[in-house]
Amino acid sequence: MTVTQGNKTRQRILAIAAIGGSLLACAAQAQTSSFTSSSKLLLTGGVTNIEGSAGGGLTPWAIIGGYGTRDQIGANAFFTNVRADDYELRTGGALVGLYDRVELSFAQQKFDTKEVGGLLGLGNGFTFTQKVYGAKVKLFGDAVLEQDSLLPQVSIGFQRKENDRGALLRALGIKSDKGTDFYVSATKLYLAQSILLNGTLRYTKANQTGILGFGTNAKDKYEAVFEGSAALLLRKDLAVGVEFRQKPDNLPFKEDHWHDVFVAWAPTKNVSVTLAYANLGNIVIKDKQKGTYLSLQVGF
Amino acid sequence: MLRKLGILFAAVGIVVGGATLTSSAHAQEGVKITDDAGIFKEFGEKAGLVKIMDDFMINLLKDPRTKPFFENSDQKRVKEQLVDQFCFILNGPCEYKGAKMKPIHANLNINRENFNALVEQLQVAMDKNNVPFRAQNKLLAILAPMHRDIVTK
Ligand code: HEM
Known about the structure:
The structure holds two protein chains of two kinds.
Chain A: H1 3-30, E1 47-48, E2 54-55, E3 73-84, E4 88-98, E5 102-112, H2 114-119, E6 127-140, E7 153-163, H3 166-171, E8 174-176, E9 178-190, E10 195-204, E11 214-216, E12 223-235, E13 238-245, E14 258-268, E15 271-283, E16 286-299
Antiparallel strand pairs in A: 1-2, 3-4, 3-16, 4-5, 5-6, 6-7, 7-9, 8-11, 9-10, 10-12, 12-13, 13-14, 14-15, 15-16
Chain B: H1 2-18, H2 39-42, H3 45-62, H4 67-70, H5 75-89, H6 101-105, H7 112-128, H8 133-143, H9 147-150
Helix pairs in contact in B: 3-5, 3-7
């Protein structure tokens, strides 16, 4: 990305942040009374994806996070721990959903290389930290209520990612420690079938979601990848499902696609717990990484 | 890059747009569920619906998001009409002769929160009466689009 493009991106983010800020200000004046009412149906606010957007665990969905309806504001905080054979990823963050239209999110990811860091000469427990600033706007549709229509809810969004290991990444031939993913998601609850489907197209340069930076010196181009989720509702507070996340493959070693099976449980409207078994493939130098994904979300 | 993004979004738009050729049956009083012969039984037939509506109304009068609407309504009539309406939707031997959804709710100032709260309280009442979850969802799938006639705020 050239300097001017970088500036443009930054301007765009600032513009969106400003819009979000003024929306919040209006809301604080006009809507304080409904801030805490949780009025979407259980689990229809989704859980939080590893990059902080409302969705499944691996991928953002078109739904706007939090339980706020179009007259309300909702908010969530989350903590997720992915424990693979040789690595650990700890993520925490929060989002606000404004009037079931706009979602603003922040997440911080810490990728712990544990002993692999030592093997690579970085030191045991060497950690990459990435901050992710996200925004999502619902374009049209309603995933839940429009049950007589096949039209899904469609949203677009971005995830701006900033990694703290720029010098190391560049020494490894990686182009940048910052990048922005753009995505479009379509989500639909098929209530008569008790099934939820989501498809996301992501436009990205990220290596391992950005934990290993963006682009390489050999290839610094955006590409479109597909992400999908399917969930079966078992009870109003319980869903099981599968997810898939296609990944670019630009590193010297192979980057694999990700998949998982998950169960999400919402004991109350304010709390949900997601447990997944994820297959993450090759990460850095360790092959066949499998592990557990445990996420706790607390919302309003 | 932006141009490519534009193309990407346009492509998705076309795919999604293609899926809008949907059933034009605009739910007024509800469409019959005809693909499930046993569903009326799963609700306990008419006697079951009467019990569900009794519990439903109790819940609606407890929930601050729905109470103001129902406390001064003719609760007995609303329950009876709901029994007939749901019985019809569930393919039971009933006819719904009550008011159309749009005019009867038109002046009530119902918003999304009120609507979703009512659905939640219906779920609670159906759970209490042991209606299987998947059967509940089939009914809710017919009721949900009625928000277009009911939510005016
Ligand atoms: C899919 C959802 C809904 C269905 C199927 C439904 C159905 C009905 C039916 C069958 C009646 C009786 C009509 C008659 O008396 O002839 C009725 C009346 C009424 N409904 Fe709804 N309703 C729904 C949503 C709501 C919501 C969300 C509220 C407010 C929170 C509400 C408030 C009322 C009130 C207050 C009446 C009585 C009106 C009057 O007697 O003038 N309804 N509804």
